[in-house]
Amino acid sequence: MTSGISGAIIAWLLLATIAHAIEVNVTGEWRPDLGWEVTCGWQTLSNDTLQSVRLFNNGQQFMIYRPERHGLSRSEVFQTPQTVMHVDCAVTIDRGQEGRCVMLLEPYQPSVNDFTYSCEVSGERPMFRIGKKDYLVKILVPPSNASLTSKTQDGSSPTRVMLNCSSTGLPAPNLEWTVDQDKLQADFTGRVWNATSKLWNVWSYLSYTRNTDAKVLCTPEVNSHNEIIRGTPAEFNSASRYFGTTHIMFMTLFLYLLR
Fold it and tell me: Which of 43, 112, 123, 168 fits as disulfide partner to 48, beta carbons 3.0 to 4.6 Å?
């Protein structure tokens, strides 16, 4: 019985060694004007040799890198009607014990679905140790800070104010208007895909009757997995603008009288 327990312990230790022998880390970030950059880095045991690195998109293998076949590095480009994917794999020390694969996903058209990017690293015989990590690439670039421009309609009574608000993001942000915390419907909204920034440019137009104390906010927001993510709102304060204009006129008159 003792020998059976010892054998089980040895087998468990062997499996634990195999399972944790290759360290794999996957990180990602949005690169402005480029797309998503996802990096898979690995490190094997000092007595191991890299056999292969396999890359997967939603469980489907799309690339394999074998130093024995491809040498110290391999670069590939994969194109679809919606995206282009650049992949560069390279070992950084002898026998491939350390290295990385860098994937840059550049959207040609607006992406709508998240996807899981997987990196599987295998060691050579006789152990064939394996390490694997999954990374969820979220199709999300939070809204940029709102930008607001205003124009007053001359000669109108009461005064009409025309506001234009804009922001960028992925997916396309919604621009919410509030006047003194009351929501207002925009007069017009629009959006266009920017092929350079890889983001949606959105804008919204609102005209309203100005009150001396009205505060107008334009807030960009997106809904991602039932979570509302907001950018920094832009504010138009009628009272401040009115006070500022009056103050400037008063100071001008005062300086004129001092002449």
Answer: 123
